Amino acid sequence: MKIRVASLITIGMLFSNSPAAWAQPFQQNYVEYVALGDSIAAGMTPYGGYDESYPDMLKDMFKRKSTTMKDYDNFATSGYTSEQLKQDVQNNSAVRKELREATHITITIGANDLFQRLLADPSTAQQGIDTASSNLDVILETINELNPHAKVYVMGYYNPFSYYPDEVQNFLVPLSDSLNHEIETRAIENGDRYVTTAQAIDSKFEKYMPNPEDNHLNVKGYEAIAKEFWKIIKKDD
């Protein structure tokens, strides 16, 4: 099925502007939390601004748990691709320093690799997924080398195409599912945790994604994502 690039033009707004890591129980009475990723982790809203992000909310959840928040750094950047994040993890001294010291790390990355391909030529979309998968593998391997005891949580995306007509979704949603499958596979292979968010967002997309022209979440949507992360974090700690 061919999809005209013109029908995908709003996609340009989407998410833009080792097992040893789990072998040792988490025994610190403090948290050093690092967030990495794209505009979802940065807290971009459906109308182009920024508000409280899901990492901000997780920071507050740690505090309410009577845990000492020793440090919190959110390096998420709107429009980031997996290649850009890989470069940061491999070469950015500030990012690497915080990763070495982190007790908890969250990652949201890969959607922009897919969306860039969809905009350029929908027939090459799978290449974007493959690139995201390969780069995420390197990102997770590098983090494990820097800090084998950090707990790493990797996010799966909700459906960003919910407002599209069915005939368009029939082409796009399987690609989004494929991206999530690769993210989950890479997380598991590296001994990290995969956090699914689709079940929390997709059935309530009009509530959490109120602007049909933009696929970012409102604060309530980010709160729903934070709760999905927290379910897993609580079990691990």
From TrEMBL:
Q: Which Pfam families match?
A: Lipase_GDSL_2
Superkingdom, taxonomy of origin: Bacteria
Q: Which residues form the signal peptide?
A: 1-23
Q: Extract the SUPFAM superfamilies matched here.
A: SGNH hydrolase (SSF52266)
Keyword Signal among UniProt keywords = yes
Q: Which InterPro entries match?
A: Ester_Hydrolysis_Enzymes, SGNH_hydro, SGNH_hydro_sf
Would you tell me the protein name for this molecule?
Answer: SGNH hydrolase-type esterase domain-containing protein
Q: Which organism is it from?
A: Fictibacillus phosphorivorans
